[in-house]
Amino acid sequence: MTAIADKTIWLTGASSGIGLALAKQLAKHGAKLILSSRNQQALEQLRDSLPNAAQHQVLALDLSQPEQAVETAAAALQGVDIDILINNAGISQRSLALDTAMPVYRQLMEVDYFAVVALTQWLLPQMVERQQGHIVTVSSVAGKVGTKMRSGYSGAKFAVLGYMDCIRAEMQQHGIVCTSILPGFVHTQIAHNALTGDGSARGKADQDNASGISAEQCAKEIVTAIQKNKAEVVVAKGLSKLAPTLQRWFPGLIRRLTANR
């Protein structure tokens, strides 16, 4: 079991959605948080609202520029031993492949894949030196099952699961735990903020996410997965929870379902 109390946890994407709910849950468990997103003001308001606010730190980062984000983090976190990294920040997509410009694909990969790799690669040597640590990455059910309107998002989420599988194998000998989280539909602003084919924000909800589990329920299940040192956990309900299992055992069925949605 991984303890949460008194652990230093770096959480990206902390100012909204699943990240916001996670910050509240982790603070209740007694964690010392490093809160990251692009929105400095929102992070400061969040920190001030949490239990033991003085022990939490704000670190604003733009993860669409991963190398620059690492440089900023390295300067700000010098001498800080991070026990758990939660790669939660991400951006989604709602556009057909035929309508999606290459810069949109690049932006999705930068935030959803390369930022995870960059932060993790920077932190892993410190964890290896201490022979302990925990890397948690929030991927998606879309990282197992591709559907319409998400070709760039799903591609990035597939990629990050592959990366996590590899470092899990490599880090086992060093006592470092790697946990992949696969949320299904969660009722957050993710669809509002999703990129369209020209890179603009979609600006509206979709029914799938609106009918999904709450961010609070998702956060609770993520905390439990961290505490239990799980390798991979699907956090969802209904078809989105079943989809990875169906993809494995009944791929033809999943192909028909996704083509006809």
From TrEMBL:
InterPro entries: KR_dom, NAD(P)-bd_dom_sf, Sc_DH/Rdtase_CS, SDR_fam. It comes from the Bacteria. Residues 7-188 form the Ketoreductase domain. Belongs to the short-chain dehydrogenases/reductases (SDR) family. GO terms for molecular function: oxidoreductase activity. One of its GO terms (cellular component) is membrane. The keyword Oxidoreductase applies. Keywords: Oxidoreductase. This is Short chain dehydrogenase. Signal peptide: none annotated. The keyword Oxidoreductase applies.
